[in-house]
Amino acid sequence: MSHDAIENLSHENRSFAPSAAFAAQANATAALYDEARADRVAFWERQARELDWETPWTTALDWSNAPFARWFDGGKINIAVNCLDRHVAAGHGDQVAYHFEGEPGDTRTLTYADMLREVSQAANALESLGVQAGDRVAIYLPMIPEAAIAMLACARIGAVHSVVFGGFSAEALRSRIEDAEAVLVITSDGGNRKGKALALKPAVDEAVVETPTVRNVLVVKRTGQDVEWTDKDIWWHELVGSQPETHEARAFDSEHPLFILYTSGTTGKPKGILHTTGGYLTQVSYTHKNVFDLKPDTDVYWCTADVGWVTGHSYVVYGPLANRATSLMYEGTPDAPHPGRWWELVEKYRVSILYTAPTAIRTFMKLGEDIPNGFDMTSLRVLGSVGEPINPEAWMWYRRVIGGDRCPIVDTWWQTETGGIMISPLPGVTATKPGSAMTALPGISAEVVDDEAHAVGNGGGGYLVLTEPWPSMLRGIWGDNDRYVDTYWSRWKGLYFAGDGAKLDDDGAIWLLGRVDDVMNVSGHRISTTEVESALVSHPKVAESAVVGATDETTGQGIVAFVILRSGVQGGDDVVTELRNHVAHEIGPIAKPRQILIVPELPKTRSGKIMRRLLRDVAEHRAVGDTTTLADGGVMDLISQGLNTPTSSED
Ligand code: PRX
Predict the structure, then answer these.
(1) Kind plus residue range of the DSSP H or E element containing 185
(2) For residue range 260-300, what is the model confidence (pLDDT) as tens digits?
(3) Domains in the chain, CATH or no CATH each
(4) Residues β-bridged to residue 190
(5) Which residues sit with their C-beta closer than 6 Å to ligand 1?
(6) pTM of the model
(7) Which amino acid residue places its CA nearest to atom 22 of ligand 1?
(8) In terms of CB atoms within 10 Å, which of 154, 255, 349, 563 comes out highest?
């Protein structure tokens, strides 16, 4: 038996090197790794110099008060100026910053000059409401240009934004406003979702009754639906629309707070992850340029994330704008009004870089390749993945069906806490393996360790840690420094523990194995849910799966798999037997699921992550726990109903 903290079970031999043509034109070359290895901090300084600083820094990294980092101390910079003014000043005012497409099909085109004007007006509007540098502003909006404009207006005046995902409830909004003591909420009447106008304002009305720190609510008119009105409320178009079109920006300290973004912990109240200014913008612009190979003059870039998540902050707003990208922003869901909507948009806007999540890819796999095959997607040249481990078969499908076998895939590992991408291939350099995020980016130091913090070495599995500070790292948890130290820095001295399991293959490539809280212990073997899920998804009848460990009298835990079949495939005992044998064949008898349940849907958070906790409740025949963060509350009923149909097998 191995001594790995987590077993290394599956093996993947496929590898895809970048084409010579792609490599020849790529922004990043292998020299970046050498440069960063030679002097990591000097490497980051060179990246920071790509930005416009009003005052240069005096100390590149101060880690004397670890784990509280200071990057580019003494430097002064304005983020909005770097994202907008400098591009307009350089003659790019007419370049499109965002092609916006609403779900109903309405469109808006915002150039860099338009964005600068609207952000300046919004900044003036915030100042007219008495919002000052350091004040917190809650933003609760759908995916419309005003979301980016509001964030940049805050950044421009040094106010700290806290974006709350528009799908969250009044209670979630209230607790976040309260924790940050926000003085202003920016919202809209509603947004368009799956063909309906979904109201947002009532949740704000409910939240602000109990949050006296909020002086005003600024309301964007998006859907035109009826809204209740109180004396705190102001229409965005009336106030912002009447402001001067220029705004004098001043620079802020590199360590000035930029935003708070709440992320749910495994227990207790959400954590307000705090990010600051200079280091954050340095890392998000560097990663956006090199990982996606962005060419500002020719690419059309589309990150499908909502601004309510960190991906929307770093790779819809700050990274792309700092790099003068032309982006697509889309308001709706992938399947409205029809399941080919995304591919229709790729064709319409000639999207060349697409950045999305495995959950979306697996959903499209389930629907079948005829749908994307109906559109011209030859404009695509780079594909990205983020948010969860991508199963090798989903990766292969993404490459073949969406990328036409020609686009490099960058599987990017990072977190709300890391602010920017940490582990990823470089598309013109790295030969990628389906399902692996490959290696730490130049400038980033990651390691896989065992319970005693010893490096596991190639072929071993354990815990992913980050061994050196990085510019876009969180600077703490808002109002709770002890919790910051406890959560991330207390397991092993001097190491940031990300909470994820990982393994190194024989070549040293990193494979993410999911959250360590989800790791199963079967007869003393620590088995990752990700590996069993990927084995299931490698069967041609399976679209998606979620695996959990359920208490087992003999083995400690037994593996229980929930499986969604591809469209057109019939469930039944035969399929279940076939799948159990398939897993045993792919990764070994130890990983053979004790039980497989065919289900129509899986419980997911609103950002698309599978909620295994709820599935463990089902597998252990308990009442299902707190479902308030589920994207679709009805899913657990569907799954429970499925348990009563004869498609599960147990032996
Ligand atoms: O478990 C990892 C998973 O998502 C977690 C971070 O989630 P969040 O803070 O919501 O940020 C998501 C967008 C950056 C990680 O701890 N995760 C994210 N990207 C990957 C991933 N797991 C495997 N592979 C990835 N590429």
Answers:
(1) strand 184-188
(2) 999 975 556 789 999 999 999 999 999 999 999 999 999 99
(3) 539-648 (3.30.300.30)
(4) 199
(5) 263, 310-311, 385-389, 411-416, 437, 498-500, 512, 515, 607
(6) 0.93
(7) 388
(8) 154
